[in-house]
């Protein structure tokens, strides 16, 4: 893996095999824990997913710990699916904090089922850890019969948080009529749960909601969801599943909400590769989001021929409330640790040192502006639209550096700042201090990244970026 040309220097990827959703994100006893959906034996078919595990003290350098939660129980025979972490203060035997992980055991029964109304089990499971590594025996605490009778077999992805001295749990669900919704449970001890309410959209919005999350910023709350069945919405770029959030009314709390307004839904990221994000609050009080830099059912590939691993996570992004009530996302400032000496950016392509990694910073943009990577991947703004475009794309074919990716557009009244992180085969674009984000994978072939820009701006530099993952895969 160390020699893999598309291995990343500051994005978490699987040591081998397949990765999807980030799981169990937390800052526990001074260590950042990132678990993720993991199938080490991919591309072998039908390898059930478990939880892979990576840790960091600085969000820049990471250690990989292999499979933390392997699907072993009959209740998780088809995969230990997504879930979250809760930190219980002072509850460990040494008087320190206790880590509790909640996730869904997925079971597909053999037979002739539709796997929507029959043939699938969704079991909620809990494990605990005093050190973040050694896990207690698994406890199954909810089964299909325990969910409201309006639920189909699709119920999953518990997200647990504490509010008002009570533990709350969100579950994503599909009802018997193919409508997406979220269940909210409450608990005094984090062990025994009772249904608090069902949250539905005011108008149908997708057939299933995956990976629900609650975000609170400056006293304002948001429901983050991944609705499935969005292909007909113009803004979905034809994708079946998208990730976004719905702001609640001023002063409204999710635990009091009966409905949410899908007209207010905003995508977290309008690029090609972003799904199933999860947030957590770190010890400094920052709300940090990490997304899966992949997409279910995408018409483009993230594993061109010969690759032995598939997908990565986004860098950790710090969230803040925008003046217009939406959410801004910026890379954690810690990543600046990896920056080398900046070089000025100009219309002539500039090679970034440090192989194929760079942090591009553009400020004070006036009017139309274009940034081009390797002469092929273009980020441009003009006429009220931010566009991410592969110039070598062949429509309908998995060709070119984007391996089938073509073009993404997002409305943006004016462009002010641009920040672009390039990490070998991952690119994350942030416009106007993180007001818009676009993530994409690509598979560049040049040894060194070249960057050029056209347009007027006050300041434009490229920092070559170091390799935070050196040694991670040794
Ligand atoms: C989202 C998802 C989750 C599920 C997990 C399985 O990408 O489908 O709903 O728990 O992936 O890997």
- Structural class call reads mainly beta
Q: Estimate nothing, just give the exact number of structural domains.
A: 2
Major beta sheet summary: 6 strands, antiparallel
Helical content band: under 10%
For the record, what CATH class of the largest domain applies? Mainly Beta
CATH level 4 superfamily of the largest domain: Glycosyl hydrolase domain, family 43
Structural account:
This protein is mainly β. It has two domains: 17-331, Tachylectin-2, Chain A; 339-464, Exo-inulinase, domain 1 (Jelly Rolls, Sandwich). The protein has strands at residues 17-28, 31-39, 50-56, 63-69, 80-88, 98-108, 120-129, 139-142, 151-163, 166-175, 180-187, 194-201, 208-217, 220-228, 244-247, 259-260, 266-267, 275-281, 287-293, 309-310, 312-313, 317-321, 327-331, 343-344, 350-351, 357-363, 366-373, 377-382, 385-390, 407-411, 418-423, 426-431, 436-441, 450-456, 459-464. Beta-D-fructofuranose is lined by residues 20-21, 37, 49, 81-82, 104, 156-157, 210-211, 275-276, 296.
């Amino acid at each position: 893996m160390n020699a893999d040309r598309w291995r990343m220097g500051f994005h978490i990827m699987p040591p081998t095999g397949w990765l999807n959703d980030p799981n169990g994100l937390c800052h526990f006893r001074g260590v950042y824990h990132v678990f993720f959906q993991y199938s080490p034996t991919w591309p072998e078919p039908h390898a059930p997913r478990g939880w892979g595990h990576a840790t960091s003290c600085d969000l820049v350098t990471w250690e990989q710990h292999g499979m933390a939660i392997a699907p072993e129980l009959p209740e998780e025979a088809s995969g230990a699916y997504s879930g979250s972490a809760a930190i219980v203060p002072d509850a460990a035997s040494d008087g320190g904090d206790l880590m509790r992980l909640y996730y869904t055991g997925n079971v597909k029964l053999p037979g002739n089922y539709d796997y929507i109304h029959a043939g699938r089990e969704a079991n909620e499971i809990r494990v605990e850890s005093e050190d973040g590594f050694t896990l207690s025996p698994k406890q199954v605490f909810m089964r299909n019969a325990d969910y409201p009778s309006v639920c189909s077999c699709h119920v999953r992805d518990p997200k647990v948080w504490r509010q008002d001295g009570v533990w709350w749990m969100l579950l994503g669900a599909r009802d018997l009529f193919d409508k997406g919704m979220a269940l909210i449970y409450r608990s005094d001890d984090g062990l025994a749960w009772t249904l608090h309410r069902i949250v539905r959209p005011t108008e149908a919005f997708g057939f299933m909601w995956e990976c629900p999350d609650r975000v609170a910023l400056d006293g304002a709350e948001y429901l983050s969801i991944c609705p499935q069945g969005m292909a007909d919405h113009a803004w979905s770029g034809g994708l079946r599943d998208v990730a976004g959030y719905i702001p609640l009314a001023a002063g409204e709390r999710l635990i009091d909400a009966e409905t949410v307004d899908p007209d207010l839904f905003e995508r977290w990221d309008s690029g090609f590769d972003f799904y199933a994000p999860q947030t957590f609050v770190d010890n400094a009080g920052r709300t940090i989001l990490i997304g899966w830099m992949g997409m279910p059912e995408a018409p483009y590939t993230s594993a061109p021929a010969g690759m032995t691993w598939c997908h990565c996570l986004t860098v950790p992004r710090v969230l803040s409330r925008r003046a217009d009530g939406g959410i801004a996302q910026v890379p954690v400032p810690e990543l600046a640790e990896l920056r080398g000496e900046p070089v000025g950016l100009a219309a002539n392509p500039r090679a970034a040192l440090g192989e194929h990694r760079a942090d591009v910073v553009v400020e004070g943009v006036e009017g139309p502006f274009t940034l081009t990577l390797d002469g092929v991947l273009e980020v441009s703004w003009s006429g009220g639209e931010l566009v991410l475009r592969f110039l070598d794309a062949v429509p309908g074919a998995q060709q070119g550096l984007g391996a089938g990716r073509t073009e993404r557009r997002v409305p943006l009244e004016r462009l002010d700042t641009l920040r672009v992180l390039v990490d070998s085969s991952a690119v994350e674009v942030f416009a106007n201090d993180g007001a818009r984000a676009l993530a994409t994978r690509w598979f560049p072939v040049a040894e060194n990244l070249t960057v050029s820009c056209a347009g007027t701006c006050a300041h434009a530099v490229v920092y070559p970026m170091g390799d935070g993952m050196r040694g991670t895969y040794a």
